[in-house]
Amino acid sequence: MSNTPADLKYAKSHEWVKTLPDGTLLIGITDHAQAALGDLVFVETPKVGRVLAADEACCVVESVKAASDVYAPVAGTVVDANAKLGENPELVNDAPYEAGWLWKLKPANPADVDGLLDAAGYLASLS
Amino acid sequence: MAHAAEPLNPSADVRTAAGPMVSPLNPLEPLIFELGRAGRSAVAQRPVATVAVELPAALRRRVPPALPQVSELQAVRHYTRLSKLNFSIDTHFYPLGSCTMKYNPRACNRLAMLPGFLGRHPLAPAAQSQGFLACMFELQEILKDVTGMAGVSLTPMAGAQGEFAGVAMIRAYHRARNDLARTEILVPDAAHGTNPATATMLGMTVREIPTNAEGDVDLERLAAVIGPQTAGIMLTNPSTLGVFERSIATIAKLVHDAGGLLYYDGANLNAILGEVRPGDMGFDVIHMNLHKTFSTPHGGGGPGAGAVGVSERLLPFMPIPVVGKTGDAYRWLDEKDLPQTIGRLSAFMGNAGVLLRAYVYARLLGREGMQRVAEFAALNANYLQARLRERGFELAFPTRRATHEFIVTLKRDKQQHELTATDIAKRLLDYGYHAPTVYFPLLVPECLLIEPTETEDKDTLDAFVEALCAIREEARTDIATLKGAPYRMPVRRLDDVRAARQLDIRYVAPAGSAR
Question: Is A118 within the bounds of a domain?
């Protein structure tokens, strides 16, 4: 069974969101998503400074099976991206909620995060 | 090569494979660079080393190129051995279907290579190319007829370029009407990846439309996003899910009422050839992969032809040149005839050889023959689907009739026995079958997309069913051994993750070698 931490928020399209102390959001894909994709061989993160609309496709994760878009769970501006994934895409498989984070977003409206799913809601969306 | 020469005994094979096992086939053929000796060459092919003296010294090579140094017979044997390692339509059942390679009659190849065609210079004047132009004109007419479109341009060099031309025409149409707000292209989530890529290349914004559980486009979600910004929708019908889009008439009306146009991706044309016409479904533009549906050996990225067909309203925008006929004379139509054309897509007029093969294929089949292609493609797929369902394989869309292809999902087998689509694909090689498409479409987990095509006989299909059942049985008794398949190929299971992460495709001569 895949790991779905209770302290994170989730989007139906398999992204997780963690609100950091400074109000920015750390974003990645769920354990379920990485398991479904299989071993990643390439990750393209969004450029720092890019302004994203909610649900905008902004990141690509490619495994030996498929290339998939990752969507912005909420609107905002990209303030950081995980540079380590260029050389080590497997971090997303090994630690999807930690070293395998994808990008950091400054939300346009911090309250948007409340509209996302909680762990139970995300798990329910999988069945 | 030994693969299917004798009946395989898969269970015995798996047992022996558990121990150290030498492949019954050739050891892996070395690179041609690893054959031969310094200074050896085939006299007839020996490079002339004294050319290009008029090039400035700064532009000349300082080191001779690293060419293989082999005798003529070494080269012949090397490539013949390599060719024997191939899985091909001539040697194996190939359930990848028309997407990669269906059977292409030899006659198409032979007639397209008549000396008059082969020797014709692309710049030859029309007066000296009447035979060739007549073939191209007739091909345009045949394709118009079989697709129900008002005009056809043969110019696009491949499916991707045909898609590009199609959406470029949609854009040109809206611009010509000064309808500049139409910047969105709708694409169902079951679409081929090339559709959103094409729309993006043309500066359009892509909007994805979800598919419902039955495999049709979700009409409510479609209606919700259609509007004055809609330039058009790109659809494949039958879709990549192997089912016919039943609401196509409703979709066409929705999109047309909103001022958008409909683009038909011809990837699955094989399923409906001569039976249903995209023009009658309401499509405004269609691309046809002539290389796949109309008989050119193309697997591995060979030359293509992505002819486009258009409805009345897109006629002025067709890519040039198009072949026209005045009286008895054929000629190229260009900017003067089609001032609103989206322009030229290549130096000449597309891949002449592929178009000629398509012409011969179309003439050999005729209208009735084309219908039979679609009917037998659908019959074979539905037979295979029914047999596999009977034997307990799970269908992705169990309530739907297959078109020319269908999808098996191994979701349950993976949960119960860890049997994945990759495992089946690899083990099928040992049984003498090329694997079907795996892991596409992305919407279906652990899927096999099986397309037998129209030319397979019942015995072959039955044997394929038995092979799949035998592999599933192996998975149930000894999944660990199955995970090591293939066992009878020159190489075993490759580490495709490492191969992708540490790409190593360049030959580097060992230090101290003479090259």
Answer: no
Six token digits for residue A17:
């969101």
Vertex A109: Cα angle to A106 and A115 (nearest 5): 110
**B71-79, Cβ contacts within 8 angstroms, sequence gap of 24 or more:** B71/B36, B71/B40, B71/B41, B71/B42, B72/B42, B72/B43, B72/B44, B72/B45, B74/B35, B74/B36, B75/B32, B75/B42, B78/B29, B78/B32, B78/B35
Burial class (CB in 10 A: 0-12, 13-18, 19+), B321: buried
**Whole-angstrom distance, CA of residue B65 vs CA of residue B162:** 38
Q: Is the dihedral of CA B45, B47, B51, B56 positive or negative?
A: positive
Q: Is residue A61 part of a domain?
A: yes
How many angstroms separate the CA atoms of A65 and A14, rounded? 17
- Contacts B193 to A, Cβ<8 Å: 67
Cβ contacts of B194 within 8 Å, gap of 6 or more: B159, B160, B163, B265
Residues of A in contact with B500 (CB under 8 A): 41-42, 64
Given the candidates 1.20.58.760, 3.40.640.10, 3.30.1330.30, 3.40.50.720, the CATH classification of the domain at B130-366 is 3.40.640.10
The answer to the question of residue A2 being in a domain is: no
Residue of B311, B273, B275 lying closest to B289 (CA atoms): B273
Global confidence as pTM: 0.87
CATH of the domain at A72: 2.40.50.100
- Whether residue A66 and residue B442 make contact (CB cut-off 8 A), yes or no, is yes
Domain count, chain A: 1
Pairs across A and B, CB distance < 8 A: 18
Q: pLDDT tens, A18-54?
A: 999 999 999 999 999 999 899 999 999 999 999 999 9
CB-CB contact of B309 with B151 (8 Å)? yes
Write the single-letter amino acid at B335: E
- The CA-based diameter of chain A, rounded to the nearest angstrom, is 37
Write out chain B residues lying below 8 Å of A42, CB-based. 500
Phi-psi region of B158 (alpha: psi -120 to 50; beta: other; left: phi over 0): beta
Q: Is B440 on the interface with A (CB under 8 A)?
A: yes
Q: What is the β-pairing status of strands B406-409 and B447-450?
A: antiparallel
* Domain residue limits at A51: 9-109
Residue A117, in any domain of the structure: no
CB contact under 8 A, B501 and A41: yes
Using CA coordinates, name the residue in chain B closest to A63. Answer: B497
Identify the closest residue of chain A to B444 by CA–CA distance. Answer: A36
d(CA A66, CA A70): 13
Q: CA-to-CA distance for B441 and B451, rounded, in angstroms?
A: 13
* Chain A residues within 8 Å of chain B (Cβ atoms): 36, 39, 41-42, 64-68, 89-90
Question: What value does the mean pLDDT take over residues B289-302?
Answer: 84
CB distance A42–B193 less than 8 Å?
no
**Would you place residue B4 in the very low, low, confident or very high pLDDT band (cuts 50, 70, 90)?**
very low
Residue ranges per domain, chain B?
130-366
Q: Would you say residue B15 has pLDDT above 50?
A: no
Predicted confidence (pLDDT) per residue in B448-471, tens digit = 999 999 999 999 999 999 999 999
* Residues ≥6 apart with Cβ < 8 Å to B455: B102, B103, B376
Residues of chain A with C-beta less than 8 angstroms from the C-beta of B496? 64
